[in-house]
TrEMBL record:
Catalytic activity: ATP + protein L-histidine = ADP + protein N-phospho-L-histidine
Gene Ontology molecular functions: ATP binding
UniProt-listed PROSITE patterns: HIS_KIN (PS50109)
Topology of this chain in the membrane: Multi-pass membrane protein
Superkingdom of origin organism: Bacteria
Pfam families in alphabetical order: dCache_1, HATPase_c, HisKA
Keyword Cell division: no
Record-given protein name: histidine kinase
Originating species: Kiloniella antarctica
Length: 602
């Protein structure tokens, strides 16, 4: 149903236009109020943050204020400044004392200037950029100390290039100033704290130079142009190590009754307070985008509400017109519309029913084909391995005949005969899954069955790049069972391990044979990623497989589990600590079979 009216009178149009104007005016007023309220709230929060950062700055500056005063009372320093000759040992002692004090107080540098401003001793006396021997009479902190002032001075180090805050105190001997003690505090960690906090803090001096900033690109820029006189004084004091001191692209605005800085096109709500030093000011900048985001949100909400209001009005008007039209509509038209809808629904249901029947028939056919494919794959999986071994032994027999060694062909023919017998037994293995067949127990050598299985799989593994390594006891291992079925178990476990490493570069299967407490244990360990913990308990369930469709039906491990249990053994799966899976097969040893050396090699 369309919400657009079919016909609107001039009076109605004027009324809707007036409502739209009132709504837009209301939304605009709300957006303006949100901006003012947000700016007020941000200012309150900003002043709290500014007070916090002011406290950190004051703490960083004042916690070392005592050092110059205390060191000016040190007897060794006073003696150093009053002695003219033979000061070598005394200078070394003072250097070491200053270094120890500097490390304990966690200041940057402590040093002693004589009355001419030359450094006699310093805590960094042993470093490459030592202050010793340098004259700093041009620095204001030296001049202030000589005049009895303790103002402090921020500058970039003339020797090290490291910025810091310099505090000084005069050393007075008999009413004369014999020297000056200076302590330098590195403020870079403080700026790093501001930067890590993700906020914008700057400190300017009496000339408007930004000498502390959480943004590196703002440092040593100015918030306003510097006069030539002030610039000359800065150059004379070498305060900022030749920095250009270019003005920031800054505009000072007033928005929502608050001071705003526009820096490089980005606006900030700015809060300012005295930084505690003559001429210093601390500024806390809050991105103006926070206010804009709140305004945009309120604008979006207001516009959505306004549109919903207009659409609701149009809907009500259209609804009334529809009701009037429905009252004037003919009964026949209404019945005709209902019949057409019923006919469409009947046709749709018939079409749906036909598609459902066809889908059910397709599903039945698909299930039949899937079952047939799974059975074929399982049988082919078991038969292909003996077939590959027969081809290998046949090729070996041909080579022996070609070399004129017919007496050695018998062994290959014996192996071929054994494999054909095994193939006949394998075709009947699937029947053992449904019902148990009688088992012929006899004394067999487990090591021989294991060796035959590895030999049978050797060609297949080499084609897949899998290395099979056997670690055994070296002697025969007697158990009660059937050698063909045991060989089938071992072939299944080796085949599964090789399939688990299909996508890996390093493919290694380690088969270990152990004899512990009258039990023989065979370990099959691969270098894959292991088995998901949630499916270990289901590995030996019939038709459970993790392979892709068409690559297995989930009968191999189930049949192997039944064979091992029939022979009185046990089989389980587990994950290795360093990756890969391990299958553990355990049988009780039979003592009636004599131990003898086996004559096959793997």
């Amino acid at each position: 149903m369309s919400l657009l009216p079919r016909k609107i009178s001039w009076k109605t149009f004027t009324l809707w236009l007036a409502c739209l104007g009132v709504g837009l005016t209301f939304v605009s007023g709300v957006v303006q109020w949100v901006g003012i309220d947000s700016a007020r709230d941000l200012s309150k929060v900003g002043f709290d943050r500014l007070s916090l950062y002011h406290g950190t700055l004051h703490s960083a500056l004042e916690k070392h204020r005592y050092l110059p005063f205390v060191l000016s009372r040190d007897e060794e320093i006073r003696e150093l400044l009053s002695t003219k000759d033979g000061r070598g040992g005394l200078i070394l002692s003072v250097n070491r004392s200053l270094n120890a004090t500097n490390q304990k107080a966690e200041s940057d540098v402590l040093y002693v200037l004589n009355s001419e401003g030359t450094t006699l001793a310093a805590s960094n006396w042993s470093e490459e950029r030592s202050f010793v021997g340098h004259n700093y009479a041009f620095r204001p902190y030296y001049k202030d100390a000589i005049e009895g002032k303790e103002v402090g001075f921020f500058a970039v180090g003339a020797t090290t290039g490291v910025p810091g805050f310099f505090m000084s105190h005069a050393v007075v001997n008999e009413a004369d100033v014999s020297g000056v003690i200076v302590a330098k505090v590195d403020l870079r960690p403080l700026q790093q704290q501001w930067r890590d906090g993700g906020e914008h803090v700057i400190v300017t001096d009496q000339n408007g130079v930004i000498f502390l900033s959480s943004r590196d690109k703002w440092r040593y820029r100015t918030v306003s142009p510097i006069s030539e006189t002030s610039m000359a004084k800065i150059r004379t004091n070498r305060q900022f190590a030749g920095a250009g001191l270019a003005p920031l692209e800054l505009k000072k605005l007033t928005i929502f009754g608050q001071d705003v800085f526009e820096i490089d096109g980005e606006r900030f709500l700015v809060l300012t307070r005295d930084a505690g030093k003559p001429g210093w000011s601390m500024h806390f900048l809050i991105p103006f985008k926070f206010i804009r985001e709140k305004q945009q949100t309120s604008l979006l909400i207001g516009m959505v509400l306004l549109v919903l209001f207009l659409m609701g009005g149009l809907f009500i008007r259209e609804r009334r017109q529809k009701l009037r039209s429905a009252q004037r509509a003919r009964e026949a038209d209404r019945f005709q519309a209902i019949n057409e809808m019923l006919q469409i629904e009947i046709d749709e249901r018939k079409r749906t029913e036909e598609e459902l029947l066809k889908t059910q028939a397709d599903l039945v056919q698909t299930g039949k084909l899937a079952a047939l494919g799974q059975m074929s794959t399982a049988i082919a999986h078991e038969i292909n391995q003996p077939m590959a071994a027969i081809r290998t032994f046949t090729a070996s027999a041909r080579l022996l005949l070609g070399k004129g060694k017919p007496e050695q062909v018998g062994q290959s023919l014996e192996e071929i005969s054994f494999l054909t017998e095994r193939m006949a037994k394998i075709t009947g293995e699937l029947k053992t899954f449904a019902r148990k067949a009688p088992v012929e127990y006899q004394m067999v050598d487990l090591r021989e069955a294991l060796g035959r299985a590895i030999t049978l799989m050797q060609t297949v593994c080499e084609q897949d790049g899998v290395i099979v390594e056997l670690r055994d006891l070296g002697d025969s291992v007697p158990v009660r069972g059937d050698i063909v079925r045991l060989e089938q178990v071992f072939v299944n476990l080796i085949r599964n391990a090789a399939d688990a490493m299909h996508d890996y570069n390093e493919k290694r299967i380690l088969v270990t044979l152990r004899n512990i407490n009258d039990h023989v244990i065979i370990l099959f360990e691969d270098s894959g990623t292991g088995i998901e913990p949630g499916i270990i308990a289901q590995l030996f369930d019939p038709f459970f497989t993790t392979k892709d469709v068409g690559k297995g039906v989930g009968l191999g491990l189930s049949i192997s589990y039944g064979i091992v249990k029939d022979f009185g053994g046990n089989i389980r799966a587990e994950n290795l600590d360093d990756g890969g899976a391990r299958f553990v097969v355990e049988f009780p040893c039979a003592t009636s079979l004599k131990h003898q050396r086996l004559k096959y090699t793997v």
